[in-house]
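Deviations from the work plan: none for this task. Representative record:
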Amino acid sequence: MDNNVIECAVVMAGGSGTRFWPMSRVCKPKQFLPVTGGESLLVQTCNRLNPLLGDDRMVAILGEGHLPEAKACLADRPIRLIGEPVGRNTAPCIALGALYARSRGVQGAIAFLPADHHTGDQKAFLDALCTAAHKSLSGGIVTLGIVPDRPDTGYGYIRRESSAASDPVDGVFRVAEFVEKPDLDHARRYVASGEYYWNAGVFVATAESILREVERHLPALHRNLSRLEGAFGGEDFARRLEEVYESIEGISFDYGVMEKPGVEGYVVPCRCDWSDVGSWASLYALRSASQDADGNHIDADAVLIDCRGSFVQAAGKKIVACLGLEDILVVDTPDALLVARLDRSQDIRRIVDAIKSKGKDAFL
Amino acid sequence: MDNNVIECAVVMAGGSGTRFWPMSRVCKPKQFLPVTGGESLLVQTCNRLNPLLGDDRMVAILGEGHLPEAKACLADRPIRLIGEPVGRNTAPCIALGALYARSRGVQGAIAFLPADHHTGDQKAFLDALCTAAHKSLSGGIVTLGIVPDRPDTGYGYIRRESSAASDPVDGVFRVAEFVEKPDLDHARRYVASGEYYWNAGVFVATAESILREVERHLPALHRNLSRLEGAFGGEDFARRLEEVYESIEGISFDYGVMEKPGVEGYVVPCRCDWSDVGSWASLYALRSASQDADGNHIDADAVLIDCRGSFVQAAGKKIVACLGLEDILVVDTPDALLVARLDRSQDIRRIVDAIKSKGKDAFL
């Protein structure tokens, strides 16, 4: 493994994390929680990169309201933190990270990674990242493409150009298109074709490549962010960032840049036991190793009778008793309790919205 | 309504109440809780009788460990309380009540009633009780028979003799037999026949009738209890009762007396919107008036999305969120949480047993 090929890592930790309510809250989204056990997802993400680069070459970009949580997670590690005054999706975040890296003199490959994903096979992940980094040095923006093992409808897909046309070198393909979350029928065809990968939201590129494409496809964003030139590390950086963020629009890097015609995009296929940990259901799937014989995942002082495929989590000294449940999610916290069908866990946002509209923000 | 026909009421409040765990606990069974809303079931039972007789003519028999709960419920009401040192089922309780009443000079009708049932139509119930009381004065033991409106398999049934043979006078039938809880097929036939009633566990008889039948069919019980003659109200009553209860066996009045050959049993049919409130499912059925349009009963600060036929109860300031549930019971208390299929609520005893066998008696 080449531990010099990536010069800087931008860890994107701006998620608001309503999908793990009531475990995650507005003030503590999932990246700051040990959702998968052990360390928080943010810490896991940074640790995962350490074989390739040290903490002093990482920057985490997150909501400024979450700076205390991030500091608590990362303790005294010399990871630079940049607080966004408001979330504007990934395009501003990636462009900001590129600008920051350039201001620090970074000319080589930068990896941009979400802070809240799970990776089971670290070596496979880092190998793919190195391949992407090498490729990025000759131009273009390289993504990781997770080789799908099932027709998941919860992920976006990346289609590569077919090998004949693409002439892949060392496991790198040209991107043909980015595809939004498909229905099951399309997902099945994607997986069967062998030409589609899950979009993990990981990008590797030089600052120059990123900023050139942003300038081309999101000129207003580029213009606004350029006002920060020379401001990084300055005393009034936060104020100036706030002014900039007030004027820019939220847009994803996929939609705003990668899907535009003429963008030189590449994909490096990767089998690394990856999950975006996007819902209670995906966390349940991740925890399959710790399920009981009836497929129940229990993280509580609990008594289960005649239950199957259920997920029970409770904090503290409480006892949880379950009887006759199938595929039910139970999450108990001191001030909020969630009981849901596990296969409806992608709709937990509706719960959060309903609580908000009742004016009960204290529970969010 | 004849408000002199019943001379004494014996309210049987000895239930241990595991069926409403975790709302009810060993130290606070359901009769001491406002299970149906408003007052506790014990207080409702006493209040229901007040049009016929005053508090000073009532005695409540209960586990001596529950005397503080009963006193708290009944405040300063002059209802006599007798604490049983240990539960021995209904035959000893009824015989003890009859002995007590006789010691107080009661020669007329005594009503024996469970403390933990619900009655929607008080007038119909009291009318039936008066009819039973009148009948009891000419001998025999008279039960109330609840006219069934569905083939419930959770209740025991009473079959009356067919009218031709029975020659009913004023709505009183001779009892042909007591039947244990049937399967659905039998229950359907019982209801269709018009000759079966639900056994509500209510008996009306003179002390003499009760004690004569107990002497005949449960002579050991009669002999032991007779040692209490003259002890009621005495200083060493509790000690003497404890000695007696150590020597007697637990047996129900139905099984030990009413089902024996030669017992002169009568039944008064009654339509009074009755329930034994025997499980969360029966409580859910009782609360049909307060259900939302999707048949959910909500007694909590709750947000329900796409839920049907569910029962949600929570104490305190907690928020409960439910998503996609059907026929699910959620009961949250500060130290214990139950999530169960509502139609499995008769099996909650298994939960309680499992908690006990884990040695976690503090939660019982």
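Chain A touches chain B at residues 21-22, 301, 303, 305-306, 314, 317-325, 328, 330, 332, 334-341, 343-345, 347-348, 350-351, 354-355, 358, 360, 363 (CB under 8 Å).
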